[in-house]
Hints:
By secondary structure, the protein is of the alpha+beta class. The protein has helices at residues 39-52, 115-126; strands at 22-30, 57-65, 79-86, 89-96, 101-108, 129-138. The chain has 2 helices and 6 strands, in the order βαββββαβ. The model has no long low-confidence stretch (mean pLDDT 87).
Amino acid sequence: MPTNTDHRPGEKPKVKEEGPYGLELVLDLHGCPDETFEPELLKKACYSICKKIGMKAGPFHQWGTRKDEDQPTNPKSDGISSCLFIDTSSITIHAIDRLMNCYVNIFSCKMDWDTFEAAKEAQRILGGKIVRHKHITRA
């Protein structure tokens, strides 16, 4: 799995006494199967990731639709965006069916969740190949 992180798989990020503000995962999945882009599967992915990282789910929202093959579109702005608010921030999936890619962002001010486990869970449900897995410690 490609990584650009400041910790190894299975390790928790080091937290200073005053601590950073939070932890974010930026995950790019390319070549996702066609069924990934169904709204219900995207919703399932958000809730499953939430459970996997031990967070409490809040409101869920989606915006957008799959695109008709005959309709001219902009693959950088089309698709379905799904957002699950969690007790410590949010899980967002931008699913672009024209590109067959999903772009996942998970942010939490809680520091003790495993970005590698979250990435594996996202890939398990959404499919595709992980081409970017970037862990960011927010100041």
